[in-house]
Amino acid sequence: MFEPVFLAQQALNGLSFGGLLFLLASGLTLVFGLQRIVNLAHGAFYMLGGYIGIVIATMTGNLLLAVVVAMISVGVAALVVEVLLLRFVRGQEMPEVLLTIGVMFVVADLCLAFFGGDPKTLPASASIQGALTIGGLTYPLYRLFVIAVAVAVGIALALVQTRTRIGAVVRAGVDDRETIAAMGVNITRVFTGMFVVGGALAALSGTIGSGVISVRPGIQNEVLMYALVVIILGGLGSIKGAAVGAVLIGVIDAFAKAWIPELAYFTIFAPMALVLVLRPSGLFGRAT
């Protein structure tokens, strides 16, 4: 259990799973941090994106096209939810939470009706085949691809957040949305844009993730739980926090399932509980 090859394999498993969690949690943390909405439909957006991506990838054998179509489709769905539903209960925490729960159930039932209840995965024709062998370690190229995508998206989001006017507005909105609205910024459009981006990122993670974890009924609850743990650890509105939290949870989860599977969930929630006690704002969140 402590052989170098085993340790390296579990570390890579943790990084690849952490990459998926980052893609999912990065959108959720911005929505949560900016709009103060606990978007419990985020996991359903992941599932919907995964199903759409699998269908397109099966039809065309093109992973890039599958990702683009899934992101656009779920982005449009998120836009409809924000404009036609959430906008009318903005600022009311309980109605917002209940509404996103309702959206989650509706999306989940629609997915069950259209795509069936059998687990589905990305077809081999659209996946990256082969493995990288270094010494005694052989590791699938697709999982390394997942890590690379997560790093690329993380760098892009960090640059947008720190180097552009849109990023400055989002950061200001996370810190003090009332003041940024008083300065003449159309905060409603910013809210809508972030909600759409969050949905698109969920679809990206769902499509990419379908090559690692099968998409099935109930997956929305599982991935949402992990995403919430990540953003609580990292801090609201922080891309850096989402990245660090995702890597921590991914690595902990991989080694816990290998060494102590009966305590796997405990090892996930224990760090979250510790952070909530010692630093409620998260590792990179700002204390209020």
What would your notes on this structure say?
With 288 residues, this protein is mainly α. The protein contains ten helices and two strands. The protein has a two-stranded antiparallel ribbon with strand order 1-2. The longest helix is centred in the first third of the chain and has 32 residues, at 4-35. It is globular, with a radius of gyration of 19 Å.
In summary, what is this structure?
By secondary structure, the chain is an all-alpha fold. 74% of the residues lie in helices and 3% in strands. Helix 1 (4-35) runs antiparallel to helix 7, helix 1 packs across helix 8 (219-234) and helix 2 (42-60) packs parallel to helix 4 (93-115).
Percent of residues in β-strands: under 5%
Mean pLDDT: 87
**Strand order, largest beta sheet:** 1-2
Find the structural class using helix and strand composition. mainly alpha
Q: Could you spell the SSE succession in H and E letters?
A: HHHHEEHHHHHH
* N- to C-terminal distance: 44 Å
Biggest sheet descriptor: 2 strands, antiparallel
The number of helical elements comes to 10
Helical percentage: over 70%
Tally of DSSP β-strands: 2
Shape: globular
What are the segments in which pLDDT stays under 50 over at least 5 consecutive residues?
none
What gyration radius follows from the Cα positions, in whole Å?
A: 19 Å
